[in-house]
Design a protein that fits this description.
alpha+beta; 3-stranded antiparallel sheet
């Protein structure tokens, strides 16, 4: 995504920036549209939830439904 305008979500200010204006440690992105950048936190939360579910499914792999989970 090196061509065209890129947008970033600034974690410190909560604002969307057109082009990289702040240090990378404060930014999420790049995104191809302002709307995608505005939804950065919601998108990240959704992905994290999905990854957590995948991790739980992986941890449970091979256990029968009656088996109790042991300590992790």
């Amino acid at each position: 995504m090196s061509e065209g305008t890129q947008f970033y979500y600034n974690l410190s200010t909560g604002n969307v920036e057109q082009g990289r204006q702040s240090p990378g440690s404060e930014l999420m992105g790049p995104y191809s549209t302002r709307q995608e950048a505005e939804q950065a936190l919601k998108t990240a939360a959704s992905r994290n939830e999905r990854w957590e579910q995948d991790d739980d499914a992986w941890d449970d792999y091979g256990e029968s439904s009656g088996e109790a989970k042991g300590p992790r």
